[in-house]
Amino acid sequence: MILHCTDQININEFRSNLVTWFYQNQRELPWRENKDPYRVWVSEIMLQQTRVDTVIPYYLNFMRQFPELENLAEASEDEILKAWEGLGYYSRVRNLQTAVREVVSHYNGVVPDTREEISNLKGVGPYTAGAILSIAYDKAEPAVDGNVMRVLSRVLVIDEDIAKVKTRKTFERELYELIDPEDPSAFNQGLMELGALVCTPTSPGCLLCPVQSHCGAYHQGLQNQLPVKTKKKKAIPKNMAAFLIKNNKNEYLIEKRPETGLLAGLWQFPNFEVSSVSAKEELEEALMNGYGIETYTHGEPIQYIEHVFSHIIWNISVFEAKAKQAESASGTSLKWVSQGELEQYAFPVSHQKIITHTIRGEA
DNA sequence: AAGACGTGGTA
DNA sequence: TTACCAAGTCT
């Protein structure tokens, strides 16, 4: 093993090669304009399991809408979900607001700077804690994400399964030795940037790599065998029925999803799992029991949507229906809204397709 | 420990 | 088309 641990000369060279490379090759990103802890925090939450290119427009909009931590703390749930609409993993923004409120009430609006305190904030796990501490506060704390595990598994030739939660701790232990105490921010970001731009999952650019000489996998020709990662299971398909229901005022019925679980707190058209979409009686009964809505009988589906989540596939048949009564027993989770009002509410991507295709008649 | 939790891009 | 991914966290 080329680098492993005790050789201080090699460690110093590794650090300086990585940090120098980072300053010369880092991308200009909106969250790199300054080190404001709140701005760094928001970016780290958005970046979880999400590509840089996807995040950029959301980040710009989010910071325009909630420029200071206090603005986010005071926003409504519908506002924050709308700002997150389409980004996925919606509990991230709900947790972020909970955490930001905690910072306002408990830390006088100042993001705490110890791992202990910051880790107790909702949605801040080991990676995000390390990222904020190092990037915003220049603390020598590891920030182990998928990039870092891929890069270090190659450099240090570590073949533990990076899909396993405990493997992260192995890399954190190594990092406490390896991290550059002079510039932990550039070191951590350099590791991630290297993973994103050079030490990629497939066909890594070893010939361009600033730490090639320190890389055990490169010297042994193992860069394509590492990291080791077990595969995940495939998504399970479900038959879903969705209903586009109008009343006599030309309004649509929408419902708010439960506060926990899949797509928590988002709005949707009445939507539920069915054994079969051709069992009309089952559909009518579900509408009556679930929504208190009697409808004029509906015909064949007017739209089919396949939507793939990480662990589920929704095969949605969309039906059109007219409510027999103008008002329904409207709990807080049911609402009649005009076409124009629809855009105020955050919908899952699968139901955005109903709005664009069936309501607006776009391609 | 393993599964829940989204979405859009790429080979 | 299927599979895997992309700056993880919570239960």
TrEMBL record:
The keyword Iron applies. GO terms for molecular function: hydrolase activity, acting on glycosyl bonds. Its cofactor is [4Fe-4S] cluster. The keyword Phosphoprotein does not apply. Keywords: 4Fe-4S, DNA damage, DNA repair, Glycosidase, Hydrolase, Iron, Iron-sulfur, Metal-binding. Binds 1 [4Fe-4S] cluster. Residues 46-197 form the HhH-GPD domain. Its EC number is 3.2.2.31. It catalyses: Hydrolyzes free adenine bases from 7,8-dihydro-8-oxoguanine:adenine mismatched double-stranded DNA, leaving an apurinic site. It comes from the Bacteria. Pfam families: HHH, HhH-GPD, NUDIX_4. InterPro entries: A/G_AdeGlyc_MutY, DNA_glycosylase, Endonuclease3_FeS-loop_motif, Endouclease-III_FeS-bd_BS, HhH-GPD_domain, HhH_base_excis_C, HhH_motif, MIG/MutY. Adenine glycosylase active on G-A mispairs. Belongs to the Nth/MutY family. This is Adenine DNA glycosylase. It comes from Alkalicoccobacillus murimartini. The lineage of its organism: Bacteria, Bacillati, Bacillota, Bacilli, Bacillales.
